[in-house]
Amino acid sequence: MPLALASTITGSALATDSEEVVLRTSGFTVTTRDFDYYVKTAIPESQRDQALARERAVRDVYEGLYVIKALAARGAENSVIEADELDWMVEHYRDRQLMNLQVKAEVESALAKIDWRAAAEEDYQANKDAYHVPERVSAEHILISSQERSAEEALQRANEVLARLKKGEDFATLAKEYSDDPSAATNSGNLGFFARGKMVGPFEDAAFAMTKLGEISAPVKTDYGYHIIRVNERLEAGFQPFDKVERQIIERLKKSEEQKQRTAIINAVKTGTVDLGLEVNAELLQQTELRYQPKDDKVTTE
After folding, report:
1. 122 and 195 share one domain
2. What is the residue range of 87's domain?
3. Is residue 93 within 8 Å of 100, Cβ to Cβ?
């Protein structure tokens, strides 16, 4: 934005409780109403605060509005631009926006009549297998890699670390110091919960075979080297409680129903279910179709 204009933007000028002029030229103004309507239509509500909080974001919006209005003012005086075509474009844009707003209003009205908790409970019971979770364990490990040392050296080093753990030294501290797993620098070897099929076979077999919480395994060999594993928690297989998944079910159902309602509203008009007294000039329609057919495919109407 030109510096002279940028300096005119003040805190009071950005008030949104009434329309105020933020930018002014001899031919047009940019107002807080322009800003509010633009961000409402151009930026999703869930992203709006974050988008406008970044440096110069508000000024960039006003700058964009200023450029649009400045060039539009010049276009209004340009005889090359066909006024009839412009009028049609404006009317067509208005119709599309009215259509979108009307469909949105009808969809919201339909959705407001639905008991979403009851719908979610019904979906949960009908698709309960989708909410089954397998047995999981939460474990941490220290990897002694055999990629840059021999298997014998890796095993010896793993046993040295194991001996220190058995003497009571802290697992996380030793993981940061000795583990060759790159993630250990940030997670101290903690892998969180995982189910079967998520880890390499020998590691997984050892972790799920450990029944005593806090138990530390002997070095477990995999293609990566030797792992020392400690299982901290175990969750048996079962179903996620409805209360835990209710919100995600409702969000999914709303999204699906919203699309279903939108399609139904549009199809009702398209198929004539909504009777608007439509009359079709079949001759003109056919003439238009023929105009765009390849010459070899054209047929006479005589």
Report:
1. no
2. 82-132+242-274
3. no
Under a CB-based contact definition with an 8 Å cutoff, are residues 217 and 206 in contact?
yes
Are 69 and 141 part of one and the same domain?
A: no
Q: What's at 88, amino acid-wise?
A: W
| 113-151: pLDDT as tens digits | 999 999 999 999 999 999 998 999 999 999 999 988 999
What is the C-alpha to C-alpha distance for residues 222 and 226, in angstroms, rounded to an integer? 6
> Token digits for 74?
């010049």
Torsion over CA: 121, 123, 126, 128 (sign): negative
Tokens representing residue 37 in the block: 């309507």
**DSSP H or E stretch at residue 45:** helix 45-53
Report DSSP letters for 139-163, one per residue.
EEEEEEESSSS-HHHHHHHHHHHHH
Distance CA 134, CA 126 (A): 19
Which residues does residue 258 pair with via DSSP β-bridges, in sequence order?
A: none
- The string of pLDDT tens digits covering residues 37-88 is 999 999 999 999 999 999 999 999 999 999 999 999 999 999 999 999 999 9
- 128 and 247 together in one domain: yes
Give this prediction's pTM. Answer: 0.60
